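Worked Example 4.2. Consider the chain below.
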Amino acid sequence: AAVGCARGAGAERTVYLRWPTNDRLTEAERNAPLPDTAEKDEILLARGLQLLDMGQFDKATGSFDGVLAINPRNAVALANRGLAKAWMQQFDPASKDIDAAIAIDPKNVVALRARGLLLEARNDSKSAIAAYGEAIALDASDSFSLGHRAILEQQAGNASSALMDAERALKFNPHWAQLRLVRANIFKNQGKPDEALAEARALITDNSGDGWAQVAAARIYSALDHKEEAMQAFDRVLAIKPEAFIYVNRANIRAK
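Applying the procedure from the previous section yields the following structure tokens:
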């Protein structure tokens, strides 16, 4: 059986990585009045992008609304508002924004990856893979599209493509735990336990303080019958944040 973890916006933390992690808006900065100048739309756009990167999709949408009130043809604001709405599963409004952005700027990578996310959320994997491919063709460093395409390729049974995309995405974002799971599952199914174990160990090395990643590593170890290492991974999770389901998972492994 495949090693699994829940997937979602918070699971893989790659909403739209544009800003360094120590460059975050304070509450006061988010609520500060904006100057009535020609740069107001740029300030709103920067604020919206930071909020989007932080996963605050509703607030990000409000900032992009402000940009579009000033310039309705701002393709960057339209694309990112569409991405935010896609994350919030507001599919029809997201589709309108994305289509509008692409009509203005057919090579807008954010709009293309947003289209991919929207199609993925609607379970149209084939079309989502194609949309992510368009984004990657324009920007080979687009780790978001590479990673999501890898996940979909694995689900479709295209192991070699999934491995390649996951490897490329991890070079840009080594903390993406779910891509380690993708690779571990493929290697396990190919009868390559050493390679699968290497993914679990990379998970731990790259995400030492991340409980979700430690759970993922524990499940890989458990699936490969490495009981002791699985127990150690669950112990690390409990040291980060004790939760009932972790104790249950650890007990199940202990009982094997």
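DSSP finds 15 helices and no strands in the chain. The CA atoms of residues 248 and 254 lie 10 Å apart. Compare this with Example 4.1 before moving on.
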